[in-house]
Design brief:
This protein is mainly β. Helices cover 9% and strands 51% of the residues.
Length: 221
Amino acid sequence: MRTRSLLALAGVVAALTASAVVPASADDVAVLTTGSAGGTPVAVGDVLAASLASGTNATLYSSATGTSGVSCSASTFTATAADNPAAPGTATESLTGHTFDASSCSSNVVGVLGVTSITVDNLPYSTAVGSDGSVTVTPAAGSTIQTTVKLRSLLGTLTCVYRANSLSGTANNTDNSITFTNQQFTKFSGSSLCFANGYFTAKYAPVTDTSQAGSPVVFVN
């Protein structure tokens, strides 16, 4: 009888131990989902993308409250999902592309005739998306977030290089958007016509999972 009791106890202990190491339930909600909040988890490796929200511009102004600088009506980003844990938590992505269509850009800086190109350098960047809607973009170790703006002027092409240590944005499930507001860049090099600081503002929506059929919109949980 004692032997049987010990065996039974051992069986209970084994069962409890096994249940303690069972992975998270498939019913757990991931930080990033498609279709709806709490919907289908975004798979690692999926490519997420978004263009500027309809009717909005991406701007790089010389001050946080001013309107002097560069404005573009066409811009797109692409990122690859790297980790998408259960919520609440932080999903990570690799920002592999961020483009601006120079033909949609204009400048009202005195002495500047137009915009030749805007190039985002040093890609990829790491992007962290929190369950609270926070979005943080950081460069690789030892690198920096950098944007090169080439402007046309009466003196020829002006090359303005701006840098930032990181960018902070906000994700919103109402329109599946990511918004950056007055993110400060500092001039690293360029002509005196290049303003000393650039404040970047843009709203990208909707963010979609282009790896899935129909490119469903992405929600943050």
